[in-house]
Amino acid sequence: MPRPAKPWKRTQNDSYYCMLDGRMVRLTEPGESYKKALAEFHRLKAQPESSTKKPQNGPLTVAQIIHDFLDVVRTESL
Fold first, then answer.
1. CA dihedral 72, 76, 77, 78 (to 10 degrees)
2. Nearest to 41 by CA among 29, 27, 52
3. Is residue 1 domain-resident?
4. Are 71 and 53 in contact, with CB atoms under 8 Å apart?
5. pTM of the entire structure?
6. Number of domains into which the chain is organized
7. pLDDT digits (tens, 9 = 90+) for 7-62
8. Ramachandran assignment for 58, one of left (phi > 0), alpha (psi -120 to 50 degrees), beta (any other)
């Protein structure tokens, strides 16, 4: 069963975690409050999706390589 979309506490190290983009993210240091974890969770969720780009599964296609190359060329020529 997947984790809920909210912070949860790991009792092994007394820290709060959440799932973002399919990976587990530590929100607080040991002993910090749920309130601080919730604030950090909302801060991370408010970031644009491009800053938390998901890694691609499987091999790259030629079309994807060309598209990525053209993106780099366009941004460097501006």
1. 110
2. 27
3. no
4. no
5. 0.57
6. 1
7. 989 999 999 998 887 788 899 999 999 999 999 999 988 887 645 455 567 787 88
8. left
